[in-house]
User: Fold this.
Amino acid sequence: MENKKISDAELEIMKIIWTSNCPLMFAQITDALQNTGINWQKNTLITLLSRLMDKGYLKANKRGRKNEYIPLITEQEFQSVQTKNFVDRVYKGDVQGLVAQLVNSEMLTETEYAELKKILEVE
Assistant:
């Protein structure tokens, strides 16, 4: 997937769609956003959905006179691309530098550190 940046607002929409594991209608997206405390105007949501489609993250299928929205990228694929871009941009591609920073800055809990060790030992 090409690196097409998405805004925080667009990401909120994608999280809702990924969480649902099925196509969502406009009203379902609106309801889910409202449940998270986001109350955008209809036109705002239409614009954001349109941008996500233009960027290749979503597609819309007509169901009668309404659209159902379907993700074209999984959350894991998105995270993978974003992580790679972050490591390339901030750590010049040095994954070891990122891991060292996480460990040395005590950003990992003991449990997370133990899990990371397990993952690294398996490889």
